[in-house]
Write a structure and sequence with these properties.
heterodimer, A: alpha+beta, 60s Ribosomal Protein L30, Chain: A, 3-stranded antiparallel β-sheet, 29% helix, globular, B: alpha+beta, 8 strands
């Protein structure tokens, strides 16, 4: 069975806030698959740009909310894709920003 | 920085993880997508042997990947780029055209595995430039008209001159 998990708070619904054609999360086969999450205020959907640390902290707090609404939690994560903007990983020129490579973690 | 915070939130038995440097929409610096166990029982994917799904037209000798793997209740698809399904030759085109070809092929591959796009639970899409985001989205909506799967899209360097690559996990 495949079940769409609705956003537990308005700001977690990027489909409603930004028109992204995606569900916040899908529960299937005993697993919860979450959409990629960025730093957005969970209450009102406003973007919350900041440092890498502050954006990541906001994302983790939202993930806690979303996973809790499914009966899961951060303790039960089995896989994480962490993506960081290349502009924060290097001092690449603007040209290089548009020719990025997927890089494995060191 | 990210690692230090990561340890705070995920201190014990850390999950499998991949870190990538990509383009993220709207100037954000970080994006996380996760898979979590929903229940205390072991996920079905861990309880059954894996089975390679490789329909006739999808065999690519020399490539060290399977088009799809069935494990328990799930089908895991490799990242697909736009190819002619009959010959396997690249079918490069606009971002919209490549997206349409990929999702058409994806539907056929899932059907061969006994699944379908309607059973997709998670899609990861990579675009050569996030400036083309809406060109992916407009085609994507046609293939997932209702209850779309969870999704992550980001900009990344793609091999072979392709503009789009899409992978997915679906229920079997």
């Amino acid at each position: 069975m495949r079940e769409v998990i609705p956003a537990p708070v308005p700001g977690l619904d990027l489909r409603r806030e930004y028109g992204h054609h995606q569900s916040p999360a899908i529960r299937a086969g005993g697993m919860v698959f979450c959409s990629g999450m960025v730093a957005i205020d969970p209450q009102n959907g406003e973007r919350q740009h900041g440092t890498v640390t502050s954006e990541a902290r906001r994302i983790f707090e939202k993930l806690k909310l979303l996973l809790a609404s499914t009966g899961s939690s951060l303790d039960r994560l089995v896989q994480v894709h962490a993506t960081a903007s290349s502009t924060t990983c290097s001092t690449a020129s603007t040209d290089n920003m548009f020719r990025m490579r997927r890089r494995p973690a060191p | 920085m990210l690692n230090r915070l990561y340890r705070q939130y995920v201190p014990n038995a850390p999950p499998a993880r991949t870190v990538m440097s990509v383009q993220i929409e709207a100037g954000f610096k970080v994006m996380l997508d996760v898979v979590a166990a929903a229940e205390t029982r072991r996920p079905a994917a861990m309880m059954y042997p894996r089975q390679v799904i490789e329909p006739g037209g999808w065999r690519r000798p020399g490539l060290s990947l399977s088009p799809a793997i069935r494990a328990g209740e799930f089908i895991f698809l490799s990242g697909l780029t736009a190819t002619d399904p009959a010959t396997g030759a690249p079918a490069r085109g606009t971002v919209a055209a490549e997206t349409r070809q990929i999702l058409t092929n994806m539907g056929e591959l899932l059907a061969a595995a006994g699944s379908s796009l309607a059973k997709a639970v998670k899609v990861n899409a990579f675009i050569y430039s996030m400036l083309e985001y809406e060109n992916v989205n407009s085609v994507y909506r046609e293939f997932f008209p209702a209850d779309p799967p969870a999704r992550t899209i980001c900009g990344a360097g793609l091999i072979g001159g392709h503009k789009v690559e899409i992978e997915c996990v679906a229920l079997a």
